[in-house]
Amino acid sequence: MLESVKVDTHTHSVLSGHAWSTLRENAAAAARRGMEALCLTEHGHSIPGAGPFFLASAQKMLPERIEGIRMFYGVEANIMDFKGGLDIDDKSLFGLEFVIASLHDLCLQPGTPRENTEAYLGSLRHPCVDVIGHMDDRRTPSEFATVIREAGRLGKLIEINNNSLLIRKGGRERVEEVARICAEFGVGVTVASDAHFDEMIGAVGPSLELLDRIGFPDQLVVNRDLATFAEYLAAREARVEEAWAESFAATGSIRLKGRRAPRGGPTA
Ligand SMILES: [Zn+2]
Ligand SMILES: [Zn+2]
């Protein structure tokens, strides 16, 4: 059984508008837990009270390490329609290091399971999207196997969201079902806190216990340590770079010309 994860891939700070700790407090909490890295994934601007639309690109001001913790700057983008459109513009997405795509009923009135499935599939087709966030949420039911199979086919990930075991009612059975399908198909997962307060950072014990109970393979947990997560990031960087080059070639647009590669590469 995994005792812990060393990288938390889904965390929020006060800049999400409904979280209670600063970025430095989050990093300090990770350091106290002996963790290696954090992804900052503030909510996209369509969530009421979230930061401005340019927050994703403003993260370029932030350092590579805080309190000794390696930082990766990403976003939890909102899926805005049943084609999988996101509320973060392409220029910003191509400059980010980790992108979660989530359905939130605050941004899109949930549809039928078929419509929600199409929304997830569409978002997965965006080259910058890495992982589907909390797909177990019963407010946004989808066809789990269809979405998970497609994530696997694209080399992408499914999230085991610890808040689904603590806050989202009725989440446990659905989280377990998602995890069982990921194990069956061999699809990689992130086990993430979705922390909105610093004490929640990396505190994913309930998720790890659930995975242990169903015999989930540790090697599918890509955020178990920084070395494993960096392997995923190297593959995602190749995927994103290729898609960026294609879109630049297709459009000749200078708008995308200035893509910034993630700082120093995933293991810097
Ligand atoms: Zn969310
Ligand atoms: Zn979140």
Key phrases:
alpha/beta, single chain, binds zinc ion, 268 residues, TIM Barrel, disordered C terminus
Description of the molecule:
The protein has 9 helices and 8 strands. By secondary structure, the protein is α/β, with parallel strands linked by helices. The chain has a single domain, classed as TIM Barrel, CATH 3.20.20.140. Strands 1, 2, 3, 4, 5, 6, 7 and 8 form an 8-stranded mixed beta sheet that branches. The protein is globular. The model is unreliable at 264-268 (pLDDT under 50). The site of one zinc ion has 5 residues, from loops.
Describe how the helices and strands are arranged.
Layout: E1 7-11, H1 23-32, E2 37-40, H2 55-58, E3 65-66, E4 69-78, H3 90-94, E5 98-102, H4 113-124, E6 131-132, H5 144-153, E7 157-161, H6 163-166, H7 171-185, E8 189-192, H8 205-213, H9 226-251
Parallel strand pairs: 1-2, 2-4, 4-5, 5-6, 6-7, 7-8
Antiparallel strand pairs: 3-4
Helix pairs in contact: 4-5, 5-7
